[in-house]
Amino acid sequence: MSPAVFSHGDLRLYLLSLLAEAPQHGYGIIQSLTDRTGGTYTPSAGTIYPRLAKLEEEGLVSKTVDGRTTIYAITDAGRAELASREGDLAGIEAGLTDSVRLIANEVRQSVQEAMKSLRADLASAEHDERSAAKSRPRAASDDARIISREELHRADAVVNAFRARVRTDLRTHVAKGGSLPASVVSELEDGLDAAAHAVTRALDTLRPGH
User: Fold this and answer.
1) What pTM, to 2 d.p., does this model score?
2) Span 110-159, pLDDT tens digits
3) 75 and 130 both lie in a single domain
4) For the chain, how many structural domains are there in total?
5) 37 near 96, Cβ under 8 Å?
6) In a domain, 98, yes or no
7) Do residue 117 and residue 193 come from a single domain?
8) Would you say residue 97 lies in a domain?
C-alpha cells in the first residue's frame, strides 16, 4: 500500500498555500496537486471540493462564479492563517517530498519486478518454443520465425523498460521541484521520432525485394 501523501489536516493548509499564489478553479487546484507531486497523487473532486467548502465556511476562502466556472481565492483571514502556520507548511512541504520519493521508489520497484517477471515469461516461452520445434522437422523458415519472435519479445521489453525509466526519472525530477522546459520535451520527442524512423528504414531494407 502506498504511503499517504498528506497527513490529516495537512491538505487543508496546503490548499490555502496554493490559493495564496493565485486564485484557481477546482480543476486547476487538482492539476496543481498532480503536478507538484510528479503525478503520484491526483485527488478526486470528492476530496477537494468539500475541503474548499469548509474553508469558505471558515472565511478563509471566497468564491466567485464566472459563467459555469467557480473561482476560489484566499481571503485576508486565510492569509493570516497561513502566516501563523508557516512552520507547519514547511513541514508539510518536506513531508510531501519524502512521500513522493517513497511512491516513486515503489513505482521503480514495481517496474523492476514486472521486468523480472517478463524475463521469466520470455524464458519460459522460449523453452516451450524450442521444445515444440524439436518435435517437428526443422526448416530454415522455422528457425527464422523462432528468432524473429524472440527478438520481438526482446524489443518489447527494451521499449517498456525505456518508457518506465524515463517516466520515473521525469516525475521524480518534477516532484523534487525541478523544472521541465518545453525544449527538453521537444528534444525527447525528436529523439524518439528519429529512432522510430531509423527502425522503419532498417525493417524496409529487410523486406523481400530490397
Assistant:
1) 0.46
2) 667 777 777 777 777 777 766 766 665 555 555 566 667 777 777 777 77
3) no
4) 2
5) yes
6) no
7) yes
8) no
Domain that holds residue 60: 10-90
The Cα angle at residue 190 between residues 187 and 191, in degrees rounded to 5 = 85
Task: For residues 124 and 201, state if they share a domain.
Answer: yes
Please name which of 45, 29, 48 lies closest in space to residue 37, comparing C-alpha atoms: 29
For residue 75, give the nearest of 27, 20, 33 by alpha carbon. 20
User: Are 131 and 156 within one domain?
Assistant: yes
- Shared-domain flag, residues 110 and 194: yes
Which CATH number fits the domain that encloses residue 68?
A: 1.10.10.10
SS3 string, the chain, reads: CCCCCCCCCHHHHHHHHHHHHCCEEHHHHHHHHHHHCCCCCCCCHHHHHHHHHHHHHCCCEEEEEECCEEEEEECHHHHHHHHHCHHHHHHHHHHHHHHHHHHHHHHHHHHHHHHHHHHHHHHHHHHHHHHHHHCCCCCHHHHHHHHHHHHHHHHHHHHHHHHHHHHHHHHHHHHCCCCCCHHHHHHHHHHHHHHHHHHHHHHHHHCCCC
Do 32 and 110 fall within a single domain? no
Q: What size, in residues, is the chain? A: 210
Whether residues 85 and 177 fall in one domain: no
Q: Which of 65-69, 73-77, 88-92, 142-146 has the highest mean pLDDT?
A: 73-77
Neighbouring C-alpha atoms within 13 Å toward the C-beta of 163: 7
The residue among 75, 10, 66 whose CA lies nearest residue 43 is: 10
